[in-house]
Design brief:
single chain; 278 residues; mainly alpha; DNA polymerase, domain 1; hpI Integrase, Chain A; 5 strands; 7% strand
């Protein structure tokens, strides 16, 4: 447990106590020590409640977050505000937060979801600590539930080949072939435009991604800087893409002037999502 930095030495003030029979006794004693420190610290504790603070905090974060991340954060904030929104920031304690996590698990939420909620709360309270609204971050000392390790199941080459053969002649065969042979993410392939494919050089460029936030399709940059990349196309995949683009062009010509010829998507219109570039 930390009570901030010593004003003289600048070192972390971490008192040690022993002799508690249970974890619960130790946590309650720690909270009592924190309350005593707050009373003697000479600083007035914030009277802000957690719920309104989290909403203001989330608004301040939106410009630096992806739309899908904002949606995930908002769900976590709503979850926290429903049960702890009326608690003052200065009154939050690690034990209170851990009980909140236990309550969430009791409603049937997955440990991963509760752990994500913890991440959002810890980040928000870290900013409150940095701004001097609280003397320490109580979520930093609260333990989220452990998340079971997930072992992803992937197809081997034979299974992928069987799937592609099964799709022979299907409109989206090239899309799935692209995913299987290049490792592109689903949204990256949906965000692929004609201008991103260079059949002469046998390459394609991953420069954007399409995802869904609620019911709205959102175009964004790749998830990480390394995700913006150029991928080589082998001769078979290049041939599939060429045939797909040729068929797509023929269908658009048959559709006539009602079809917006500026549409540049390779796959999204195949799924009925007629998105137009800015």
């Amino acid at each position: 447990m930390s009570l901030g930095n010593d004003p003289v030495t600048g070192k972390r003030n971490q008192p040690q106590r022993q002799g508690y029979r249970t974890k619960r006794e130790a946590q309650e004693a720690a909270e009592a020590l924190i309350r005593e420190f707050d009373r003697n610290s000479g600083s007035a504790p914030s009277t802000d409640q957690l719920g309104p603070y989290l909403l203001d905090w989330l608004d301040s974060q939106q410009a630096s977050l992806r739309p899908s991340t904002v949606r995930s954060y908002r769900q976590a904030v709503d979850r926290i505000a429903e049960r702890l929104g009326g608690v003052r920031l200065a009154d939050l304690r690690p034990l209170m937060i851990e009980r909140f996590y236990s309550d969430l698990l009791g409603t049937g939420l997955a440990p991963k979801t509760v752990a994500n909620t913890h991440t959002v709360l810890r980040k928000a309270l870290a900013d409150a600590d940095r701004l001097g609204m609280i003397s320490r971050n109580p979520a930093a000392n609260a333990r989220p539930p452990s998340v079971p390790r997930y072992e992803a199941e992937v197809w081997d080459a034979d299974q992928l080949g069987q799937f592609i053969d099964f799709l022979d002649g299907h409109r989206l065969q090239t899309y799935f072939l692209l995913l299987g042979l290049t490792g592109m993410r689903r949204g990256e392939a949906l965000g692929l435009r004609h201008r991103d494919v260079d059949l002469r050089r046998g390459t394609l460029s991953v420069v954007q991604s399409i995802g869904v936030v609620g019911t709205e399709m959102v175009i964004s940059a790749p998830k990480t800087p390394r995700s913006r990349r150029q991928l080589p196309l082998d001769s078979d995949l290049a041939a599939h893409l060429a045939a797909h683009l040729r068929r797509q062009k023929e269908e658009r010509l048959r559709a006539g002037p009602l079809w917006n010829t500026s549409v540049d998507w390779v796959f999204t219109d195949e799924l009925g999502n007629h998105l137009h570039p800015d």
